[in-house]
Amino acid sequence: MTADGLSKRVAYGALVDFYGALLTSKQRELLAMYCDEDLSLSEISERMNISRQAVSEHLNRSYARLDTLEAQLNLFERFREMKTSVNACLDHLSLVSATENTQYHLNQARNILRRHMNEEEA
User: Fold this and answer.
1) CA-wise closest residue to 31 among 18, 109, 89, 95
2) What does the pLDDT look like over 45-90, one tens digit per residue?
3) What's the CA gap between 74 and 94, in Å, rounded?
4) Is this model's pTM higher than 0.85 or not?
5) Would you list the domain boundaries of the chain?
6) How many Å apart are CA 18 and CA 76, to the nearest integer?
7) Rounded distance between C-alpha atoms, residue 87 and residue 114, angstroms
8) Which of 106, 102, 105, 31 is nearest to 65 (CA)?
């Protein structure tokens, strides 16, 4: 994953959206506190009543698990590629001049693509 802290948190937060169900409840809880709530390792250790080192080790194991899942399943990367493709289709459709007979179908295609993207981002 990425080197800088914020990007790393965001990237792993996105991976949790895809693979969270495959993590342990403790891993999900720690990642939620670290990535979503933006808590420090010390804050998490106080909340969970474990050492800061234990938090770090659990997070690193969670990161490794997420990396392994993405390497094996590649769902997140395929989603990003699909999202790019859908946006490219929308861009191309915006350049089309439709006739009266085809305007309805052009609008339907745009609406389907937009609806799909909104569902994915929700």
Assistant:
1) 18
2) 999 999 999 999 999 999 999 999 999 999 999 999 999 999 999 9
3) 30
4) no
5) 5-73, 77-121
6) 7
7) 9
8) 31
